């Protein structure tokens, strides 16, 4: 009797695990800030949430636009992007270089359910807000986009100019 109960409990737990690990409408959360894990990229690096020097609000809409679609920052600034999804479908903010975004967008088209969570992206459900804290420590013109299938191609992209 007890063994049966235990088996049943174990089976239930096993059944629930995939539900928790599921990566559907929200493909996981970006890892929390850990200074030892921060990697330099061509477009900057993950920012320390305790050292944010500026907050930039971005809106995402179902007409495949970011507002604003151009942001200017000074080199060294740690920017907190607060991205709000005003639409009815999932959108995401992904920072990168134009080349990387195009490559990533192509990959998303081939593997639409692909799970990914990186410090330079936020997946935002309709009506919700997400955050990306990023330090722009390199001068240049970088890009951001929504890489859900078809969105980037439809023009859901913008620029960050670092001076
Ligand atoms: Cu989108």
Please explain how this structure is put together:
Helices cover 20% and strands 33% of the residues. It has 163 residues and is α+β, with helices and mostly antiparallel strands. The chain has one domain: Cupredoxins -  blue copper proteins (Immunoglobulin-like). The strands form two sheets. A five-stranded mixed sheet has the order 1-8-5-2-3, with no helix packed on it. Strands 4-10-9-6-7 form a five-stranded mixed sheet, covered by helices on one side. A hairpin with a 3-residue loop joins β2 (54-61) and β3. The chain is globular, with a radius of gyration of 18 Å. Bound molecules: copper (II) ion.
Chain-wise SSE layout:
Elements: H1 2-21, E1 45-46, E2 54-61, E3 65-67, E4 70-73, E5 78-85, E6 91-96, H2 98-110, E7 121-124, E8 129-135, E9 140-145, E10 157-162
Copper (II) ion binds next to loops.
Compute the separation of the termini in Å.
70 Å
Total count of helical runs of at least 4 residues: 2
Helix content: 10-25%
Strand order of the largest sheet: 1-8-5-2-3
Short key terms for the protein model shown above:
Immunoglobulin-like, 20% helix, five-stranded mixed sheet, single chain, 163 residues, alpha+beta, 10 strands, binds copper (II) ion
Compose a concise summary of this entry.
With 163 residues, the chain is of the alpha+beta class. It is built from two helices and ten strands; from the N terminus they run H-E-E-E-E-E-E-H-E-E-E-E. The protein has a single domain, classed as Immunoglobulin-like (Sandwich).
């Amino acid at each position: 009797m007890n063994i049966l109960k235990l088996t049943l409990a174990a089976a239930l737990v096993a059944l629930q695990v995939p539900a928790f690990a599921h990566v559907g409408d929200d493909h996981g959360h970006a890892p929390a800030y850990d200074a030892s894990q921060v990697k330099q990229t061509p477009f900057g690096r993950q920012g320390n949430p305790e050292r944010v020097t500026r907050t930039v609000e971005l809106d995402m809409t179902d007409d495949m636009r970011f507002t604003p679609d151009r942001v200017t920052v000074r080199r060294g600034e740690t920017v907190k992007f607060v991205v709000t999804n005003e639409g009815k479908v999932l959108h995401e903010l992904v920072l990168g270089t134009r080349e990387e975004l195009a490559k990533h967008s192509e990959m998303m088209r081939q593997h639409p359910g692909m799970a990914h969570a990186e410090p330079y992206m936020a997946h935002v459900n309709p009506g919700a807000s997400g955050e990306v804290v990023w330090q722009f420590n390199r001068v240049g013109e970088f890009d951001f986009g929504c890489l859900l299938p078809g969105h980037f191609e439809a023009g859901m992209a913008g620029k960050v100019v670092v001076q």
